[in-house]
């Protein structure tokens, strides 16, 4: 890891916001964020209009990594079914990590409940994009009602993520992929 003097205060704040909000929730205090980042509150407010703006920027910054985790390693060769199953296999593997707390974007939506909050706007866009990815893959795979299947897949993803993040469900036995397979079969997907 790079020393803190080589990482900009902005990046340190975004990293701290990602770590602490994932571990402790989005209501983490500004003092804790600044202390974790090694940045003064004054500097934080010079870099961001508000804690809300910093949280939204932190979530935006995580999107490429989140997307990369859910993208099949060989999307051109994989079938739509394989691309969908990959998302749930990644979820199952991630859920086994002791530090797993669920989907960070779902957590923001659940915690904030304010549709106009900058972090909610980012989180909702990520979840809508995942639903659209599921819908497009379902359509490519010949599902009778791709929109319905996409909604069902997102429901399973979010529910499995939340239950595994709360440590009330172990996804290591393939429950999510088995459920998704049954849904794709019932939808007539190749």
UniProtKB/TrEMBL annotation:
It comes from the Bacteria. The keyword Transcription regulation applies. GO terms for molecular function: DNA binding. Residues 29-48 bind DNA. Pfam families: TetR_N. The keyword Transcription applies. InterPro entries: Homeodomain-like_sf, HTH_TetR, Tet_transcr_reg_TetR-rel_C_sf. Keywords: DNA-binding, Transcription, Transcription regulation. Residues 7-66 form the HTH tetR-type domain. PROSITE patterns: HTH_TETR_2. This is TetR family transcriptional regulator. It comes from Streptomyces fodineus.
């Amino acid at each position: 890891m790079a020393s803190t003097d080589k990482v900009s205060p902005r990046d340190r704040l975004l990293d701290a916001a990602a770590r602490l909000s994932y571990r402790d929730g989005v209501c983490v205090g500004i003092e804790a964020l600044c202390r974790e980042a090694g940045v003064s509150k004054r500097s934080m407010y010079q870099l961001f209009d508000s804690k809300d703006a910093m949280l939204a920027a932190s979530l935006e910054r995580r999107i490429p990594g989140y997307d990369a985790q859910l993208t099949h390693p060989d999307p051109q060769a994989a079938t739509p079914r394989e691309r969908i199953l990959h998302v749930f296999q990644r979820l199952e593997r991630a859920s086994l990590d002791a530090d797993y707390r669920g989907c960070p974007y779902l957590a923001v939506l659940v915690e904030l409940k304010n549709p106009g909050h900058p972090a909610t706007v980012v989180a909702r866009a990520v979840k809508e994009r995942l639903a659209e990815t599921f819908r497009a893959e379902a359509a490519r795979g010949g599902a009778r009602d791709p929109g319905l299947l996409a909604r069902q897949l997102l429901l399973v993803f979010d529910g499995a993520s939340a239950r595994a993040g709360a440590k009330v469900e172990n996804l290591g036995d393939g429950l999510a992929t088995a459920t998704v397979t049954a849904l794709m079969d019932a939808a007539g997907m190749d």
